[in-house]
Amino acid sequence: MKDGVADTQDTVVDGGAGEITMHGYTDLAAKQLNYQIAFAPKVTSSLPVIVAWMVNPATALGSLSD
After folding, report:
1. CA 16, CA 52: separation in Å to the nearest integer?
2. Starting at the edge strand that comes first in sequence, how are the strands of the sheet with 18-27 ordered?
3. Predicted pLDDT at 18
4. pTM greater than 0.85 (yes/no)
5. Hey, which of 2, 7, 26, 41 has its CA 20 to 30 A from 56?
6. pLDDT for residue 24 is more than 60
7. Boundaries of each YhdP central domain copy (predicted)?
8. How far is CA 44 from CA 31, 57, 60, in A?
């Protein structure tokens, strides 16, 4: 933080559902935010559900209701 401005260029949050990356700044004096945020889902954790929906949606609905 310098002169009321906090910035980041390489923040990464690695979560169970995916990865969030961001860069930008917060200007506390001007009360402004300027961030670019991206989310990349982890498809492999949802792969069995996706395949079930593709093969047979009725079976997938049944498995989700258990």
Report:
1. 21
2. 5-14, 18-27, 32-41
3. 84
4. no
5. 41
6. yes
7. 1-64
8. 40, 19, 17
Q: What is the pLDDT of residues 27-63, one digit of tens each?
A: 999 999 999 999 988 766 566 666 666 666 565 566 5
Paired tokens of 11: 């923040």
Q: CA 16 to CA 56: how far, in whole Å? A: 26
CB contact set of 19 (below 8 Å; sequence gap of 6+): 12, 13, 39, 40, 42
In this structure, what are the phi and psi dihedrals at residue 30, rounded to the nearest 5 degrees? -90, -5
What pLDDT, in 10s, does the model give residues 6-16?
A: 999 999 999 88
